[in-house]
Specification:
Layout lengths: L16 H16 L5 H44 L1
Helix pairs in contact: 1-2
Length: 82
C-alpha cells in the first residue's frame, strides 16, 4: 500500500485542483528525468490522464459557474435600472 495521499482510483471530487496539478507535475517531472521505472510508466501515464480529466472538468465547471454569476449580476443590474 502506498503512503501517497492521493490514490490512482480516487474519485474526482476527492482531490483538489491544486493537488491534481502538483501530482501531475510530479509525474511529468519523473517522466522527463527518466526517474520513473519502465514497469511503472504505464501506471503513471494512466494516472496523469486521469488527473488531466479531473482538471479539465474542474475548469469547465468553474467557467460555467462564473458565467452564471455574471449573468445573474447583469440581470440584477438591468432590473434595478428598469
Amino acid at each position: 500500500m502506498s503512503d501517497e495521499p492521493t490514490q490512482p482510483d480516487a474519485p474526482e471530487e476527492a482531490i483538489r485542483y491544486a493537488e491534481a496539478i502538483r501530482e501531475l507535475k510530479a509525474i511529468l517531472d519523473g517522466i522527463e528525468t527518466e526517474a520513473i521505472d519502465l514497469d511503472e510508466l504505464s501506471v503513471q501515464v494512466e494516472r496523469a490522464a486521469e488527473l488531466i480529466r479531473v482538471c479539465r472538468g474542474r475548469i469547465q465547471r468553474t467557467e460555467m459557474r462564473v458565467r452564471q454569476v455574471l449573468t445573474e449580476l447583469r440581470d440584477e443590474a438591468g432590473a434595478e435600472e428598469g
